[in-house]
User: Fold this.
Amino acid sequence: MNNDGENSLVIPDRDESGSTGVQVAGDVSTYVAEAKGSFDGLPMTNAIGSIGADNNRAFGGPIPQRLLQMSFFGLEQQLRESQTECRRLSTVVDDLRGRLQTALVENATLGSTVKADKSQKAPRTFAIAVGTGLTTFSTNSLRTSSTEQERNLALAGVLVGLVLLLVCWFWGSSGEKK
Assistant:
């Protein structure tokens, strides 16, 4: 800006164009830009940055110091990502552990139901066999009976056999099906 407050373009003279081949050493800190804020809170990266800031030649110059600082920054970034992934997987494992406990309880319940079914199977099978035999024998006796008392006894045998068959038929089906 000039004195009037207007923007003006400064055109260098031909001597200062840089085409003469003369180079002037600049300040060392001008060719390495400092990134502020992105490395805050990272202990190893901050230590390397502060050692490099105190003594520019501590790591062989600003460029090796910056490369070392960036490599530690990358390692610490990977560490943070790994820790986040570990937390996520820990949550998944806890969820799966809860589901496993639920499945184990359900498995134990179903196992006890199967055991109870097996313990009821023998008496039920025996009662069905007795009911079938009694119904068959009583039906044949009903056909061949000659007296009223034999008919009544055969009819009672048929009814007891049928009731026994029906009770045994529906005995195991009253449970909750899964």
Notes: The chain has one domain: 39-171. Residues 39-171 form one domain.
